Amino acid sequence: MAQALAKGKTADEAYALAGYKPDRGNASRLTANDSVQRRVDEIKSRVAEKAEWTAADRLSALKTIFDSHAEKDARVAISAIAEANKMQGSYAPVKREHSGPNGGPIQTVDLSNVSPDDLDRLEALFGPLAGGSGDDDEGDPSGEGEEGG
Length: 149
Known about the structure:
By secondary structure, the chain is mainly α. Helix content is 54%, strand content 0%. The chain is built from seven helices and no strands.
């Protein structure tokens, strides 16, 4: 019940969340109980302590982690650097978005029901635009093409 009260729940809500059958009088009496009030205060003070960590405190902690792991575990040290960079704003994940003309959606064409003859004609027309000889898999750097295409 103290945890729910510390989170800002009403006495009735906290009483019910604690598993008791709803009873406004009992909820009020239990909320006024000194031991319950002490526990609510204790929970709130712990939350306040955590909130007191400044950015400088966090950076200092990350520096300590880096210093103690730099030679022993490079992964931990690198993670500490990455977190510090994120906090400082010097790390921005690369976000790439592709769009069509004027920022609109990319137009697509469903070719799943096209006959093999039509696909051959399309490949003859558009193959040169892809910069290849018409073979989809030629020079495929991704390695995703079929073998012997």
